[in-house]
Amino acid sequence: MTIDEYAAGAAGVAAVRMKPAERTDERELLHLALGLAGEAGEIADHLKKSLRGETWDRDRLAGELGDAIYQWARLCTLAGCSPSEVLDRSTRAIEARIARQAQM
Predict the structure, then answer these.
(1) What is the CATH number of the domain that holds 79?
(2) Which residues 6+ apart lie within 8 Å of 99 measured at CB?
């Protein structure tokens, strides 16, 4: 499965879950952005336990990462960007940053 196929499937799940009155693009964008921020917080909260000497759970982390990817993929799609396009842009930006640092 590609990331774009995943995003298309996630969009189908979201369409079933949302009430018709909630289906405005602006409202859904905000909902997804806040959901992504919340999932990032759950990931950070889980991993911060290692600072206290506790072990973190790989399966739980994988679940939280999956939740974050769901929110991110939906946000990409609703914003009119395919997830693969976003990843390609990110890769080019990272490569350009590395090239600039190598020239210093």
Answers:
(1) 1.10.287
(2) none
Residue 67 to residues 40, 60, 71, 90, 92, Cα–Cα distance (Å): 9, 11, 6, 20, 26
Do the Cβ atoms of 29 and 78 come closer than 8 Å? yes
Residues 71 and 34: beta-carbon distance below 8 Å: no
pLDDT value of residue 13: 79
**Number of domains composing the chain:** 1
Over the stretch 3-39, which tens digit does the pLDDT of each residue have?
999 999 988 877 666 666 667 888 889 999 999 999 9
Residue span of the structural domain in which 70 resides:
3-103
